Amino acid sequence: MKYLNLHYWTKILAFLFSVTAISLSQAIIIKDDQGRIVTFENPPQKVISLAPSFTKALFLLGVGDRIVGVTMYCKDYVKVQSLPKVGTVMSFDIEKVLSLKPDLIVATPLANRVQLDKLEALGIKVLVFKSPDSFRELCEQFVKLGTLFSLDQKALYIVKLAQRELEAIKKGAKRSPRVFVQLGTDPIWAAGKDSFIGEAVSLAGGLVPIPGRGGPVEREEVLKINPDVILIVNMGIVGERERRRWKAFTSLKAVRENRIFLIDPDLYCSPTPLSFVQGVKELYRLLQSP
Fold first, then answer.
1. Final residue of a domain: which of 144, 164, 184?
2. Where a domain ends, among 105, 139, 164?
3. CA 241 – CA 232 distance, rounded (Å)
4. Does residue 220 sit in the same domain as residue 118?
5. How far apart, in whole angstroms, are the C-alpha atoms of residue 5 and residue 164?
6. What are phi and psi of 89, to 5 degrees?
7. CA pseudo-torsion sign 260, 264, 267, 268
8. CB count in 10 Å sphere of residue 65
9. Tens digit of pLDDT for each residue in 91-100?
10. What is the CATH number of the domain that holds 85?
11. 3-state secondary structure of 24
């Protein structure tokens, strides 16, 4: 697969860097996922992160100390737990945000656009990045964040490190089990082979039988597919309840061979390049074991 070729990846990232994230001696120019170009005279010093994925990425880049506010869902680091919580991914307390005096808000398209416009009108810079649909998009976004803080070389190094590890994992896969990935329930929501988590399963040697990016499926459809493995993105007690439901269908190969697993959603829903590798390694362990 092309995205697993390091030489190819280096050329792609170099092109991306030159076009959408330019670091000059006097200015840093970033193009976000909504096509908006934002210019910074210097790297931001006070950042509010409106998504766990951004918070993790900033800590990985070594600039977590510049985060002054986060959402209630950002919990992965000890330092984050003591930071002011300004709201959720979708809405936030404008007065609280203003009291923190940020020079940058990093948000997803789920954030309230009216609120973001108000902040921009007050002179606060806003960048909007969507949730990546692939490992390639995840790395492109990570490099943009690195460039924003004049850490483009560090970001590229991390991307290449993750890429090398994924190459090694894929080369080591000897089994090709058919894997059904359940993301939700009532209705059952399945991940497709072209989804982000579908890519992770593929890198670990698995085959995802659901086409495209996935969607709702009937339980009878899964029975017809008869997967070798069922992965359930952990939804707390709901995830455990779904595992018990599947175990009632003893005709399923995954049930007979006791291969129904709960997996950590954070490794696939809000990853960094390195935590995505961690997620693929976990899938490799589950899928490649006898």
1. 164
2. 164
3. 10
4. no
5. 9
6. -65, -30
7. positive
8. 10
9. 999 999 999 9
10. 3.40.50.1980
11. coil
